[in-house]
Amino acid sequence: MSHAQQSVRGEVAIRHLSKSFTLNGEPLPVLRDVNLNIRSGESLAIVGASGSGKTTLLRVLAGLEAADAGEVLIDGKAVHGVGAERAVIFQEPRLLPWLTVLDNIAFGLETRGTSRDEARAHARRYVKLVGLQQFENAYPRQLSGGMAQRVGIARALAVQPEILLLDEPLGALDAMTKIGMQQELARIWRDEEVTTILVTHDLEEAIYLADRILILPREKGGESKFIDIDLQRPRDRSAPEFVRLREELLRIFGLH
Amino acid sequence: MAYDNIDLSLAPGFSPSNRVVSGTAIGARLRDFLLPFLTRYGLVTGFLLLWQVSATRGWVNPAVFPPLDVIVVALWDSLASGALLDDIAISLQRAGIAFFAAVMLGIPLGLFMGQIKTVEQALDPLLQFFRQTSALALYPIFILLLGLGETSKVFVIFWATLFPILLATIGGVKEVDRKLIEMARTYGASRLTVFRRVILPASVPAIFVGLRLSATTALLLLIAAEMIGANKGIGFQVMNAQYNFQIPLMFAAILLLALIGLAANAILLALQRRLCRWSQPAP
Predict the structure, then answer these.
(1) What percent of chain A has pLDDT over 90?
(2) Band of pLDDT at residue B9, cut at 50, 70 and 90
(3) Chain B contacts of A96, Cβ < 8 Å?
(4) What is the pTM of this model?
(5) Closest in B187, B276, B277 to A159, CB measured
(6) Which secondary-structure segment (H or E) carries A78?
(7) pLDDT tens digit string along B161-179?
(8) Which chain B residues are within 8 Å of A161, Cβ to Cβ?
(9) Alpha-carbon distances, residue B264 vs B99, B156, B181, B213 (angstroms)
(10) Which of A52, A166, A173, B233 could connect to A177 by a Cys-Cys bridge, CB 3.0–4.6 Å?
């Protein structure tokens, strides 16, 4: 796979996307006419108040929910349902408890048709990437929360997606583990050429990881806001610019 | 303070760890083997001892509760002479065929029913009704339909063992974490792959609960069926020995049943350990 070819892949366009759920027989609009372009290789963070539809947007992108109207284009082609060019990292690791760490990482490759031996050989590289060599043959119940989530991340990366969709991937971790994992994700982003769309409620995490932040409006159909994060990587959480961005975001949410 | 002048130090040489350190090799071995053994089998051993002593001392009527050595000798004699072997064979055959048939029908049907909600909902009331109906109460119907021969015996055991397996399997499939299925779907897993790689392995522990329950039920029904209408089998021998007042032989047959039950459970447990290594605590 040549670099030149890869650099034009993983481009996402969302056109007039709307989605409602039904609550007690009443339609409850969650997304209304969302339009969005995500560049190839970009890291976009989506933040918003609860109920702003950020997780729903990600699930539509993942192909786990169908949109009521509008479309999702990946590299110019409309997509329906799940696809091999996308991989999802959920809030929970969602590991198969009966598979070892290595086999869990190989799982996505196997379901997509790679032979077992080949998948395992390939998965070994990703075991290393997330630093779990010593736990290759461990079962999920033997892992800590942070380790389990690393396996989930490795499983998604192992299928070499063009687009990585992350739904509050570090939301269930304790504060210390979380910061460590954010650093690890930043490192992986840098090394793997992949478009990442991260849904998070952690504003600091969004500033630390993203090239651009999308703030979903509280009112349906309201204006979405974008904030570009032009900080140098690796980012310093205590840098004045970082702190200023954090305050700006808090102000947008009416918390500062 | 009132407690200030209480001497908190322990008597010299009194320390729980002291005893461990100063213990001899034999002491250590006793601790390693005897204590776990006593915790696990102490009560059983005590019960057997009490039985033996009560019977030999005449605290209980030895004609009704013969001493254990007499029972064991009776068991050994009937095994060595081959007198009980035919009965064991026919009993194992009845229970085995019925259990096997229940497994072969119950697990696939349960896996199917658990996945399709409408099928499960439609059949559930019927299943609950059958489950609550004692298989023994239905035995006369089976005899009417199938005659007094082997078929009705095997069928009544099959009937009773089917439901625990079927319901446990349905329950296992229904309990599978939807989030894992969703995860598999994002990796392009087909329905068949989701079934093979997520639903089936996730259901195995629940299925084994049903299998072990069914194995116990199979033996229970076997004995009842053999007591009601058979001229061979361990259950028949229990009843027959009692009629003929061969009490040691009666107890020998009962002991044999207990041993078969334990063996069946041990086999299933070993199989479960092998298949569900992932859910076992770390060695």
Answers:
(1) 72
(2) very low
(3) 180, 197-198, 201
(4) 0.82
(5) B187
(6) strand A77-78
(7) 999 999 999 999 999 999 9
(8) none
(9) 11, 19, 34, 11
(10) A173
ipTM (interface predicted TM): 0.90
Q: Residue A57 domain-assigned?
A: no
How far is the alpha carbon of B227 from chain A, nearest alpha carbon, in Å?
44
DSSP one-letter code for A130: T
Of B179, B187, B204, the CB nearest to A92: B179
- The 3 state secondary structure assigned to chain B is CCCCCCCCCCCCCCCHHHHHHHCCHHHHHHHHHHHHHHHHHHHHHHHHHHHHHHHHHCCCCCCCCCCHHHHHHHHHHHHHCCCCHHHHHHHHHHHHHHHHHHHHHHHHHHHHHHHCHHHHHHHHHHHHHHHHCCHHHHHHHHHHHHCCCHHHHHHHHHHHHHHHHHHHHHHHHHHCCHHHHHHHHHCCCCHHHHHHHHHHHHHHHHHHHHHHHHHHHHHHHHHHHHHHHCCCCHHHHHHHHHHCCCHHHHHHHHHHHHHHHHHHHHHHHHHHHHHCHHHCCCC
Task: Return the half-sphere exposure (C-beta side, CA atoms, 13 A cut-off) of residue B208.
Answer: 19
Q: CB count, 10 Å around CB of B19?
A: 12
Domain assignment of residue A39, yes or no: no
The two three-digit tokens of residue B202, written as one number: 């996730």
CB pairs under 8 A between A and B: 56
How far off is chain B from A105, nearest CA to CA, in Å? Answer: 11
Per the domain annotation, does A211 fall within a domain? no
Query: What percent of chain A is modeled with pLDDT above 70?
Result: 96
Sign of CA dihedral A144, A149, A150, A154: positive
CA gap A105, A96 in Å, rounded: 10
**Cα Rg of chain A (Å, integer):** 18
Does some domain include residue A99?
yes
Domains annotated on chain B, with CATH: 1-63 (no CATH), 76-279 (1.10.3720.10)
Please indicate whether, in this complex, the C-beta atoms of B179 and A108 are within 8 angstroms of each other. no
Chain-chain contact of B183 with A139 (C-beta, under 8 angstroms): no
pLDDT band at B280 (very low <50, low <70, confident <90, very high): low
More confident call, A189 vs A194: A194
Show the tokens assigned to A221: 């159909």
Q: Looking at the 3D structure of chain A, how many domains does it have? A: 1
Question: DSSP string of A16-68?
Answer: EEEEEEEETTEEEEEEEEEEEEE-TT-EEEEE--TTSSHHHHHHHHHTSS--S
The nearest CA of chain A is from the CA of B93 a distance in Å of 34
CA distance A222 to chain B (A): 31
Give the total residue count for chain B: 283
What are the tens digits of pLDDT across the range B236-277? 999 999 999 999 999 999 999 999 999 999 999 999 998 888
pLDDT, one tens digit per residue, over B115-156 is 988 888 888 888 888 888 888 888 999 999 998 889 999 999
The parent domain of residue A119 ranges over: 92-160
Angle between helices B85-115 and B234-243 (to 10 degrees): 130
